[in-house]
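fyi for ur records
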Amino acid sequence: MTYRASITRWLGSAGRWPHLWLVPAAAFLFLVGCTAPESFLRAKSEDDSEQQRYDVQTIGDFTTVGNAEPVPVGGVGLVEGLEGTGGDCNHDAYRTMLLDQLTKERVPNAPALLKSPECALVILEGSIPPGANKNDKIDIEVKLPPGSQATSLRGGILRKCYLFNYDFHRNLSPKFQDSNSMLLGHRLVVAQGPVLVGFGEGDEEARLKSGRIWAGGRLLRDQPLSLIMNPDKQQGRFTSLIADRINHTFQTSGLRGALDTSIAHTSNELAVTIRVPFQYRHNLPRYLRVVRSIPLTDSADMPGKTESDRRSYRQKLADDLVDPSRAVVAALRLEALGSKSIPIFKDKGLKSEHPLVRFVSAEALAYLGSPACGEELHNIAIKYPMLRAYALTALASLDEAISHLKLKELIVSNHDDELRYGAFLALRLLNERDELVRGEHLNEAFWLHRVGPDTKPLIHISTTKRAEIVLFGESPRLKPPFSILAGEFAITATEDDTRCTVSRFPIRGEPVRRQCSLQLDAVLRTMADLGGQYPEVLALIQQAATCDGLSCRVRVDAVPQAPSVHELAKAGTNLSELVPAGQDLGKTPNLYQVGLPLE
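which gave:
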């Protein structure tokens, strides 16, 4: 069953179970059933090899990671402010659920509201990323249910409502008569905001019946990860020890703005819940690797157990750090020892002649909060594209002046597209109020940014995570003649025109026209002033680029990525000199992972 089909089926059956909540048994099944994808963690053979080498037990030897998959949520809501394109829907479970919600909110004459041509009942879908914290934002997908009399969601605004998690009856007991039906769970997300339409498959009429609200949902509670105890380690003393070790390791960082800054909690012998510290919010895969590398005892400086090796654990790691064939693992383990490892990274790692050793040292310093990493991460991002995603994410994790400065230098440089936009994204997430990346929110539908006016021209459009257009360099222009149709808009100019005409032909109402210059940012602002939405803006840029109607190149989702297995193989000997065999750099940080696509 697909994700969307699951949501729809749940909502259809939830009306039969309007007051049921997830029981503890179902919650526990979910907890232990959703363990981390294998690519998040080190291979078992690697774990065994490390344990034999260092003779130190770590959290990873006692646990596996749970709750490392996204949590689907769904609900029903009311879109208001439609231009006469709303209407009632079937008298089914969806309508019953919404009426129940509106009644509890004491909305007057709710049945008449549902029949209004200015309103429409909608189904809501979303996905909570693993490790998300309270008040984090997620995207919400919106669609009309089967049988709805509404014809378009264009211009509508979702009224404040809630999305819930759910579980299948079969997870409680296969003996249920309808084991595929679902139980309504807890309120996890509150959602509201303007609906952007025009995405998805099908003709224009179909695309007007579904939409999206970027960052339209706000989490109502933390969604912590879980460390599930191995069967032979399920004892209260072990879970308490693990929680204490994690809290001790992250005691100086923790969670910004939270009343309870503890990272780890436990109340039984089965699992430890862990939240994501601020500095790892953009790199969940690395956080999981570091947590699993935390020693179970505070014995980092105790000598070895054998007569032939009296070096401390920390000393062994320091020696391995400068060995390129062991540097990645050594850096993670040193990072797991906390701030006491900073001098090793600065005095040994950053001074190495090998770029991998310098890189892993600078990366670890960023997550440990040391600004000494800034220059090296900046240089690595320029020189080594395969390390770029990690280097930029590390800079985005460190809220220090050096990170802001180096990211700005990369944005306004003449380097390649992935580096410039990757740095832009890192700085925007580090400080969205920075003047360089602040931008304009046009028609509450999409963001427009002008950056680096003296750099190579580039139009960058995003189709994941955020409705965003970034214009690098001199303002791009449309090249006449052209006649472009984009949704309800027509943009036209003849060969001799120095201005263009932007016309909107709404489904209901009179056509409107306005003239503006041929500069792309002026055209986009004019479309927004006339009610244009992001899909129409994307259609304009796409068509203009296809017919060579723009003065510069267009790139879509040009974000740096971690190298794939195939890319590593193609790189051959050149890469083996940089990253010796056996070194696992990890997955692409979630900062640059492809999000929910615009279909």
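The two ends are 19 Å apart (CA to CA). thats all i got for now
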